[in-house]
């Protein structure tokens, strides 16, 4: 199938309710409202196809970019190409899939993380903080200055762009959960900033508000 044929197929799978949901979550107008499960099903049928994936990404369509993240071969991308893809992300859902399925598998992800942690671009910064949170969560924080990270989060998170706040908050929570000596300070930062304090959650779920989140995860770990 060509990119044009795939776009036509994606359009046929769209529905207004999903499109409205995506728009509310920050997706741009160039989207069809396709369920994520349908995109995964298409990816399984199409399989990995690096050039076709790049063609889909370059359409700027949300669903095409999501599909592309499942078809790209990370090792076939240079660091510069991945940096360009990251900065041309269309919305948070695409950013999360790109980070999960492509960025984390790239051989130069650590050098990119260091670059993105200094970036002004919201999507590059989001990716940098996402990789940082991942290192903390996987107990791979050796070499990270956790105190400096806490200082930076306390200073920058209140005014950071929403897309960046999410992964900064993930890093704050990860430090609080996995580093007992820094837990009190991480919780205090979360309380002072108050980010996601009023986040609506279903019964039995844990909100991303750091004081509640950290307490719940530490208790779960026993």
How many strands?
A: 0
List the secondary-structure elements in sequence, H or E: HHHHHHHHHHHHH
Fraction of residues in helix: 55-70%
Radius of gyration: 18 Å
Which segments are poorly predicted (pLDDT under 50) over 5 or more consecutive residues?
none
Structural class: mainly alpha
Describe the biggest sheet?
Answer: none
Count of spatially separate domains: 2
Q: What fraction of residues sit in β-strands? A: under 5%
What shape does the CA trace take?
Answer: globular
Structural summary, described in words:
This protein has 222 residues and is mainly alpha-helical. The chain folds into two domains: 1-107, no CATH class; 108-222. It is built from 13 helices and no strands. It has helices at 3-13, 16-24, 36-46, 50-57, 62-69, 79-87, 92-101, 109-116, 122-137, 146-156, 162-178, 180-193, 210-221. α7 (92-101) packs across α9. The protein is globular and about 55 Å long. The chain starts with a helix and ends with a helix. 36% of the residues are buried. The model has no long low-confidence stretch (mean pLDDT 96).
């Amino acid at each position: 199938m060509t990119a044009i044929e795939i776009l036509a197929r994606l359009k046929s799978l769209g529905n207004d309710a999903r499109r409205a949901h995506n728009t509310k979550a920050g997706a741009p107008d160039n989207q069809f409202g396709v369920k994520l499960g349908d995109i995964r099903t298409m990816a399984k049928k199409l399989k990995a196809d690096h050039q076709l994936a790049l063609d889909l990404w370059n359409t700027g369509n949300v669903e095409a970019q999501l599909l592309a993240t499942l078809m790209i071969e990370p090792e076939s991308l240079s660091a510069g190409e991945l940096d360009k893809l990251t900065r041309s992300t269309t919305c948070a859902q695409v950013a999360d899939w790109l980070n999960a399925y492509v960025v984390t598998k790239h051989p130069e992800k650590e050098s990119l993380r260091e670059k993105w942690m200094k970036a002004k671009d919201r999507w590059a910064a989001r990716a940098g903080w996402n990789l940082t949170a991942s290192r903390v969560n996987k107990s791979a924080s050796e070499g990270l200055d956790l105190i400096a990270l806490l200082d930076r989060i306390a200073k920058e998170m209140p005014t950071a762009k929403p897309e960046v706040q999410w992964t900064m908050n993930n890093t704050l929570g990860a430090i609080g959960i996995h580093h007992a000596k820094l837990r009190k300070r991480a919780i205090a930062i979360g309380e002072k900033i108050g980010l996601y304090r009023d986040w609506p959650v279903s019964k039995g779920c844990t909100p991303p508000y750091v004081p509640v989140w950290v307490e719940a995860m530490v208790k779960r770990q026993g």
